[in-house]
Amino acid sequence: METAQKNGITEGVIWKQLLLFFFPILIGSFFQQLYNTVDTVIVGQYVGKQALAGVGSTGTIINLWVGFFTGLASGAGVVISQYYGGGDRAGLSRSVHTSVALAVAGGVVLTVIGLTTAKPSLELLQVQEEVMDEATTYITVFYIGLIPSLIYNMGTAILRAIGDSKMPLYVLIVCCVVNIVLDLLFVVVFHWAVFGVALATVLAQLVSAVLIMLRLLRTADAYRVTLRQVRFHGPTLKKVVRIGLPSGLQSVMYAVSNLVIQAAVNSFGTDAMASWAAVSRVDGFVWMVMGAFGISVTTFVGQNFGAGKYDRVLRGTRVCLGITAGTILTLTVLELTFAGPILRIFTGDEAVVALGVAFMRVWAPAYILFVFIEIFSGAARGVGEALLPTLITVFGVCVLRLAWIWWVLPLHRTPAMVAASYPVTWGITAAVFIVYYLRKNWLKRHIPA
Predict the structure, then answer these.
(1) How far apart are CA 222 and CA 156, in angstroms?
(2) What HEC string does 12-77 produce?
(3) What is the pLDDT of residues 6-49, one digit of tens each?
(4) How far apart are CA 141 and CA 118, in angstroms?
(5) What share of the chain is helix, strand, coil (3-state, %, to 5)?
(6) Where in the chain are the domains?
(7) What are phi and psi of 214, to 5 degrees?
């Protein structure tokens, strides 16, 4: 139990341990968002709004595949955090090597699927013909570089599961700098337009994969990766998939519902597409904070559950909920106050800016509702409860959102009504999660008899 005894997450002051783990994730998420936002800014300012719309329209498709794998990686993270918290070195090693094997195999499969379906998926999204070439170029190049991206994501999940949120931050900072430099070189100097932005992203992802794997190959701890041991361990893989697959499928459902929403936005024309792309980048900074707290609570709960500290699991969840709520309320005020100036960073087209401000005013006040979804589902997954949180989220957010687009939107067909699907579904899902959490069956079912 030496590992657990030296582990501050299972021993230290709860709020302090959460924040010590959270801030590197937050800063890393900021650089990840900056990494993506730079693409959008450079495309919007140096190539034009058609290119901005084309690149923006690929986001939901890319998120479908990457989100599915990230869900699987979260399952690996839960398994690893429980082994680490419980001091099981053999189990930790098996789960790490199984996870790396999953990243490589998953990368190969998703690359083939992505390249095969790139153009048809854009057509299904009703991407306008005037931006189809830009969208096809961006998504094709992205898929070619998908394997390094998945290796990086899995490596990050491994390190965060054992409590190391600093190394992924350092890697992201390096890769963000690489991406910005290559963006400027390829687009501003070489004039490679959308292809240049996509290539810069892929090369930066390759750098991130190499750096994260070097960290795992060189550590002397039990989570060290030895290449000849990278293989699937049946029971461990089954456990990873049992926890991670529901999260992966939830991400797919999120992506599918967002694809439908993107198609609805696309039907309003290029201005709406460009505005939605810009607002999504701004929106992403809120989600990066939310996601960082979600990862923090899952890791905190996973390690303490593995160590048998069940009361600490509940106290940590409550503390994380309070901190997250205060942070998100602050961000909401800032976003609504400075909506116009922020959007002008992405485009000088006033029609696009005005539409973006309207989108923000519809959904930003409801961010606080999603805090309950993020923290309570993250805590449940930390103890290994994956299926029920997924079902609640899939029905409450995804299915109801689709119903809104199909049945409510036609009654009053405006861009603002598309955006309204978000706060409505967040509110319903948050109410269900509050009841679910307070009953505590999610914890009781997993405590050994």
Answers:
(1) 16
(2) CCHHHHHHHHHHHHHHHHHHHHHHHHHHHHHHHHHHCHHHHHHHHCCHHHHHHHHHHHHHHHHHHH
(3) 567 878 788 888 888 888 888 877 777 676 677 778 887 788 77
(4) 10
(5) 85, 0, 15
(6) 9-444
(7) -60, -40
Q: 103: which 2 tokens? A: 């990243």
Residue 302: partners with Cβ closer than 8 Å, 6 or more residues away: 77, 78, 81, 82, 85, 161, 382, 383
Looking from the CA of 7 toward its CB, the CA atoms found within 13 Å total 27
- What's the CA angle centered on 330, arms 325 and 334, to 5 degrees? 145
Q: Does residue 363 contact residue 410 with C-beta atoms inside 8 Å?
A: no
Distance of alpha carbon 225 from alpha carbon 417, whole angstroms: 49
Residues 57, 131 contacting (CB under 8 angstroms): yes
Going 219 to 223 to 227 to 229, the CA torsion angle's sign is positive
Span between the terminal Cα atoms of the chain, in Å: 21
Q: What is the DSSP string of 268-316?
A: T-HHHHHHHHHHHHHHHHHHHHHHHHHHHHHHHHHHHHHTT-HHHHHHH
Query: Measuring CA to CA, which residue among 412, 385, 59 is closest to residue 246?
Result: 385
Tokens coding 278: 């810009």
Query: What are the pLDDT digits (tens) for 337-395?
Result: 999 998 888 878 888 899 999 999 998 999 999 999 999 999 999 998 988 999 999 99
Residue 445 to residue 449: CA distance in whole angstroms? 9
Q: Burial of 104 by CB count in 10 Å (0-12 exposed, 13-18 middle, 19+ buried)?
A: middle
Query: Which residue type sits at 357?
Result: V
Q: How far apart are CA 37 and CA 70, in angstroms?
A: 20
Which two three-digit tokens encode residue 286? Answer: 């809120």
Among all chains, which residue has been given the structure tokens 């390690």?
303
φ, ψ for residue 58, nearest 5 deg: -85, -15
Between CA 94 and CA 103, with CA 97 as vertex, the angle to 5 degrees is 135
Question: Whole-prediction pTM value?
Answer: 0.77
Which amino acid, one-letter code, is at 140?
Answer: T
